[in-house]
Write a structure and sequence with these properties.
The chain has 7 helices and 17 strands. It is of the alpha+beta class and about 350 residues long. It has 3 domains: about 70 residues, Structural Genomics Hypothetical 15.5 Kd Protein In mrcA-pckA Intergenic Region, Chain A (Roll); about 100 residues, 2-Layer Sandwich (Pseudouridine synthase); about 170 residues, Pseudouridine synthase (2-Layer Sandwich), CATH 3.30.2350. Strands 8, 9, 10, 11, 12, 13, 14, 15, 16 and 17 form a 10-stranded mixed beta sheet that branches.
């Protein structure tokens, strides 16, 4: 079995192309194993993921991992190159919604769907790529890779709202200390499934990577997690869902999403933590269609970073910023209000 590797760089230089031709004496072999046996230091699960993503073709056709490779088959594979975080982010001409700016810092109102900084699978079109295009020579905080200029904190890709960017080293370190001391004011609003029994409360526990699903976080009690504290309050009860606000004392990865899911009230349409299915109400066709329409209206977790406040690192004055809920967020909320009002009216008529 003699492979003929022909490794070429893809046009975007983010993938490496490999070509293998099965030897005339090749016995039948699963496609994923065939490739794994020929790829130096590439795990089988990575090959399987590439096959699922359509990055592998046999004789020009996409096949499944269990396809049996035969003599003479031509197997082509595109595999992501390892991402070098030391490489500086490249500029991308992307419009920025600048909420506030002075000589030392910028407040950006980030839209849902925008990744904050480059990383594996997201090399371009991030907030940082846009910042590099619009602002020259933003400093990098000590301990951060070179591709994260100006960054002090971040919010999830599919969370909208306010994020502060440092334009000078003094501003970055002044803000970073406040984040470290947990003195930053951060308040979010979210639509969650159901209605909490209490009107307000505080969640305190430890968060760490999920033991089985590494892209998720989980509440842990084995001493491996980081302390996390969320203060929450119900703003509006809509029977099936609730509008809530969350004030962060700490800022752990996925903190609000994990805390609300663990509380039994996952964020509306949060696919990672169970909010993308009906959690309250019937499964009858009419209601199910209504919920699915709401999912289409806000196709991401209903979470918005609404308020941001801190001591200005240069002037020493307290500053406060607030952003409106995104249009699709408000529209979804209004649709729930109308649905609940109509439901109450129908129940009154039948009494």
């Amino acid at each position: 079995m003699r492979p003929y590797p022909d490794r070429l760089m893809a046009k975007d230089e983010l993938y490496e192309k490999s070509l293998f031709i099965a030897d005339p004496n090749q016995g039948l072999m699963r496609l994923d194993k065939f490739i794994t046996d020929r790829m130096f230091k590439v795990a089988r699960n990575k090959v399987q993921n590439a096959i699922k993503a359509g990055l592998v073709k046999v004789n020009g056709t996409e096949e499944k991992a269990n396809y049996k490779v035969k003599p003479g088959d031509k197997v082509e594979m595109m595999i992501p190159k390892p991402y070098d975080e030391a490489v500086k982010a490249l500029p991308d001409d992307i419009p920025l919604n600048i909420h506030y700016e002075d000589d030392h810092l910028i407040i950006i109102n980030k839209p849902a769907g925008m990744v904050v900084h480059p990383g594996v699978g997201n090399y371009r079109r991030t907030l940082v790529n846009a910042l590099v295009f619009h602002f020259q020579n933003l400093p990098v905080m000590e301990g951060n890779p070179e591709n994260r200029p100006g960054l002090i904190h971040r919010i999830d890709k599919n969370t909208s709202g306010l994020i502060v960017i440092g334009k000078t080293e003094k501003a970055i370190y002044g803000l970073a200390k406040q984040f470290y001391d947990h003195s930053i004011h951060r308040r979010y609003q979210a639509i969650v499934w159901g209605e909490p029994e209490e009107d307000e409360g505080t969640i305190k526990n430890y968060l760490a990577r999920h033991p089985r699903f590494r892209k998720k976080m989980a509440v842990v009690d084995d001493g491996t997690g980081k302390w996390a504290c969320t203060h929450w309050k119900v703003l509006e009860r809509l029977y099936y869902v609730s509008l809530m606000e969350m004030k962060l004392e700490t800022g752990r990865t996925h903190q609000i999403r994990v805390h609300m899911s663990n509380m039994g009230h996952p964020l509306f349409n949060d696919e990672k933590y169970g909010g993308d299915r009906i959690m309250k109400g019937t499964i009858f066709t009419k209601y199910k269609q209504f919920v699915e329409n709401c999912f289409d209206m806000i196709p991401r977790q209903a979470l918005h970073a609404k308020e941001l406040g801190f001591i200005h690192p240069i002037t020493g004055k307290e500053v406060f910023f607030e952003s409106d809920l995104p249009e699709e967020f408000g529209a979804c909320l209004e649709r729930w209000r109308t649905y609940v009002t109509d439901r109450k009216a129908k129940l009154t008529l039948t009494d």
